[in-house]
Predict the 3D structure of the following.
Amino acid sequence: MSVNIIDLIQGQLGSALITRLAAQLQESESGISKAISGLLPVVFGGIANNSTHPAILDAVTGDHHSALLGNLQESTAASPTITAVVSAILGEKTNGILDKISEFSGISNASSGSLLNIVAGAIIGSIGKYAADQNMERSEISTLLDSQKSAVASMLPIGLSASALGLENKFEQPAPSQTTTSDAESTARITRAGHTHLPPNPDDKESGSVLKWLIPLVLLTLAAWFLWKQCDNRETTSTENLASDSTIIQEDTVAFQGNTPSATITDIDLNGTPLKGYANGMEQQMIDFLKSGNYQNADDNALKETWYDFDNVQFQMGSYNKLEPGSEGQLENLAKILKAYPEVKIKVGGYTDKVGDEAANVNLSQQRANFIKSELEKLGVGSQVTGAEGYGSQHATIPADASDEARAVDRRMSVRFTK
């Protein structure tokens, strides 16, 4: 299977959801993000490593994935399906794990419990939707989940380990019969997974052998930690994500935010054509400038002084080339503006906050700027986009030790007019 299920799951747990959850649970966005980053490998690791368990397969093959993904907050709150999956993979360890997640993220145990269900719902829903779209049988789903184990390797955030989650004590003396040749092959594929387990199940041989994956994971987690320390705590991600973008999940969960002047969506007049956008937002500001005639009279030096921040575009968590649903609308609006003024040219700029390695920040902002440029090219206005440049934290104004919410203003994508 070439699909990366993790990408599908992270698409459901993006910055827009984090913002809503922070408001609903009355927690900070950074705390919600950290908790999700810890719960995701725990739950996915348990599911992937127990891919033949009946409770998991029943959940995945049910017809409720659309309801789960449609509203994760409500659909997972009291779902017996999600409860069964969580109980199967965590069992008596659930409360202890929630304690550690709360301590790690700084949010309450009640909030951690809600997020556990939401993360489990996102995983089950994403897998279920993919399996339904591909008409997969239960055996094929098990094979798919097994093939995804290696994707868990870089998911457990720095600061959490098997020891921190309180999972290691059950695995000190494995029975010889529980280690097989295939276990060694699995160990070679997994370096850091969610350290969860299934209670013994007499009807399911795999679910009774939690030791076969947890002991090597504990050892390999330590090795992974050492490698991260050698690399200044920067992870290497898959080719779907930036190699140097290890701070996205913990430090850049809101990929970028424009300075939204108003939360009101309204009709913006583009020479008689209405565009949907924020009142006094990016589109309105650009149109007003073009209607004023100042573009024709300005040179590039004057134009470079004013940048227009996107206020309704967000990248998915952990990605530089996947946008949150709904973000396409503002890109389409920008393309319509450019088509209405074919003589106008723009440049795309990408920015990050001051957290993390600057070379990595520049790389991230450049990749995202390139992506926005390529999307505009697909919309037929590529000839009007003169370039894309990533500035990293060069123009960031908020200190690195400020809150995640405060630093969000520095994580943005913008455009400016050029000649």
Q: What stands out?
A: The CA atoms of residues 40 and 405 lie 22 Å apart. The first helix runs from residue 5 to 12. The radius of gyration is 23 Å. The chain is about 50% helix and 10% strand.
